[in-house]
Specification:
Length: about 130
């Protein structure tokens, strides 16, 4: 199941690259997105994929050319941890901004039940119950 979970996460990143939107069919209805460690606007913990899309939509909309690239650092039966780089060209500008984060994913039955974003690699591993 671990490679299947990696494929789910990759597909989510592909959708973010092409549509700047989370594919709802890959998220459990009661999924949780925790942005407490990365949010500058105190977004915090979001419930449901629609809430996540609404909170992150303005961020995606900052860019004319948004892109996210991910490297899988860990995967097992229910967890995937990735190092990501996201950003791109700011709308109406030639300037680019790139951010580096870590995502901690928990999946059940091929769907995301929890996603958290972290500035620190160790915190991402802790978020899914792993010590690095």
């Amino acid at each position: 199941m671990s490679q299947e979970n990696v494929e789910v996460v990759k597909r989510i990143y592909e959708e973010l690259n092409s549509h700047q939107a989370f594919p709802p069919e890959l998220f459990a209805p009661d999924c949780v997105t925790d942005l407490t460690q990365v949010s500058l606007e105190d977004v915090g913990v979001l419930h449901g994929v629609h809430a996540s899309q609404m909170a992150l939509g303005p961020y995606f909309g900052t860019f004319d050319d948004f892109h996210v690239a991910a490297e899988v650092l860990h995967n097992d039966e229910h967890r995937v941890v990735t190092a990501i780089r996201d950003g791109g060209r700011i709308k109406g500008s030639s300037s680019e901004i790139w951010s580096h984060y870590f995502h901690a994913w928990t999946l059940r039955d091929g769907r995301v039940v929890r996603l958290s974003s972290h500035r620190d690699r160790e915190e991402a591993f802790k978020a899914v119950g792993l010590a690095e």
